Amino acid sequence: MEKYKRDGVIGKERNSLRQIHKYRRQGSSGGSVVVKRFMLQPKLDALSTRDEEASADPEETGVPIKTLRQISLLKVMQHENIVRLVEMNYEDGDSLVRLVFEYADMDLRNFLEEYAAKASDQKLVKKLLCQLLRGVAHFHSIGAAHGALNPKNVLIDIGNENLKILNIAMDADALYTAPELLLGSTESSPAADMFAVGCIFAEMVNRRPLFQGKAANINNIFNLLGTPTEENWPGKLSEVFPNLEPHGLDLISKLLCLDPSKRIKACAALKHDYFKDLILLR
Amino acid sequence: MQFNVMQEYDPIDRPPLGEDEYLHTYLNSEPLSMAAEGYAGDAHGMEWREKALIVIFTYSKCKNNFDPVVPYLAMSYFDRYMSRRNPVPALMRCRLHDLELLAICCLTLAWKIRYRYFKVRHFKAIQRSLPYIAPQKFWTMELCILQGLDWKLCTVTPFSFLQYFGNPMFGYSSHGFHRTINET
Fold first, then answer.
1. Which reaction does it catalyse (chain A) (predicted)?
2. Which of A43, A213, B11, B136 has its CA 20 to 30 A from that of A115?
């Protein structure tokens, strides 16, 4: 890590107390990166105080299955709207691997706060949402789900208005969690990602989280969207987004659909009429 | 889950993409999932391949379940690893046993990428004729293969294209079939 200097905390790792730090590249190349460590070999010493991820199953033989599946997925993820894996280094006699990902100027939460005027441009909201959906569609196309989408792991490059999804497991934020997960489903899914996209879209439009409070709960969601009879749905959405164009309102209602099996998919969302006046940057 | 949640790797039943854009992606990345060119013409390599094929076929069952995708994937890992001139680590008493361990580890890697709840101990319990392999040797061989394959286990196989049969793009492409099969 000689060529990187620690440059602030960006979040906390999922199911862990370990913080995720941002690093700045030393020298002329500049730029920021995020580092994720993976254990490749279970440590015999269970009391090891090292902060790397421990292997889940000490009886496991060979390379831990979670590590193997996560890294092999990262290797096939090559998309302009997903952060790029730039380096992979081995340490401690190959028992530890360090993955270095690119970072962008800031996360979406900071962008909405620090660039309020720029962020209120509804054309930019449309452009950013389109990029977010393209990144999410790529996740889903390779048989994966992100599982923790929220404005802290959606990154923005201010200059070129590019959006990239950070796919390091940070703590999932309850404010962006789909109702089926709040009701007890334990498996994240592409549909749950789409609900989170709906919440992020809503936050970009109104520049405040859709579900307020210490933690979103099922009451907050039903209060807004109606109870799951679907008859009174979409409930109060048009009141919450008075300035959103009708196509945008239709898209947000489809993203926030309570029934995960009826919720719009990323590929379909990209073809929604909301984007018909957007010239895609390819 | 420590990281983004993954569904099972399934090269057949991919999410319905329906976009030519994704077909292009598959076509572009398929060569990376293939054995290197000329592999099938290497007589020594083919002799080793035949031995590995027998090992993979012999031990390809786990929990009374035979999944044809697993030995297919294992064989594709073996072909990619060997065709790119990666060394076979000398971990066992003789080279034949090294080769056998290499083939078995290709198989366990295929099981691991295919089923998230796979356990090597379940596999050993079913395959009672499997020779004893020290955990450290097992780990070393698996890591060696992963490094040789650049950790790219979610490979594009001909199965990935099944949903596109009938697409006119296939008329203009020379891809879509396994190189080793083509060359043999």
1. L-threonyl-[protein] + ATP = O-phospho-L-threonyl-[protein] + ADP + H(+); L-seryl-[protein] + ATP = O-phospho-L-seryl-[protein] + ADP + H(+)
2. A213
